[in-house]
Structure of ABC transporter:
Amino acid sequence: MTKVRVEHVWKEYKLGKQTVKALRDVSMEVGDGEFIAIAGPSGSGKSTLLNLIGCIDTPSRGEIYIGDEEVSKKTPDQLADLRARTLGFIFQTFNLLPVLTAWENVEYPLLYRKDIPPRERRRRVAHYLVLVGLADFAKHKPSELSGGQRQRVAIARALAGHPAIILADEPTANLDSKTGESVLRLMKRLNRDEKTTFIFSTHDHRVMEMAERVITVSDGQITVP
Ligand SMILES: Nc1ncnc2c1ncn2[C@@H]1O[C@H](COP(=O)(O)OP(=O)(O)OP(=O)(O)O)[C@@H](O)[C@H]1O
């Protein structure tokens, strides 16, 4: 089954009198359970593409389907609901809340989910902290964790909502290569065991090599290698 479909998408940003064409007629598909890298040099449009798939931003032209739902036809409330139910995010700067512990950071987005009762919420937090190897660090704040541990908290947080798709914008950019590789291996194991679809951007060749498929973006367009 197709999880994500991007059809003839353009994204333009207006900067004063200038128009930046960040994406130009991009079409792509991602299937169920895929582990895909979006690769390309800095400024090529990777983050823009991930933000559009993640419904954080809207295309200037073209259509994006998440499952069989076309994103542009939705109201902001419906979009927020689709994001909460279907999508998980991992950012290169981890985006953890500094005053909260690892446990609380994983729990936080679940507090907004009326469909998840408190007991199930606590079960999930405990389960995913174990899964990412941080059971003993539940009470630590982000400042008391290493970069790799912080990113693993972010991965647990993304997974705890049981999203069908996880979008990761350069998840290893702020990690040394050994830690980056172990974070990638963890993502790959979760992709296999939890059947979560992963779409991540990178410009690191070693990270690309771990992907099942690489989509290359260059100057706002998908290029065939
Ligand atoms: N909010 C914005 N306003 C104006 N221009 C933008 C905006 N966001 C991105 N751009 C431009 O769109 C193009 C694509 O940017 P994008 O961030 O998608 O690239 P990227 O491939 O993710 O780069 P990097 O690897 O450096 O993160 C760039 O030319 C960038 O300057």
Notes: The pocket of adenosine-5'-triphosphate is lined by residues 13, 15, 20, 22, 40, 42-48, 203 (CB under 6 Å).
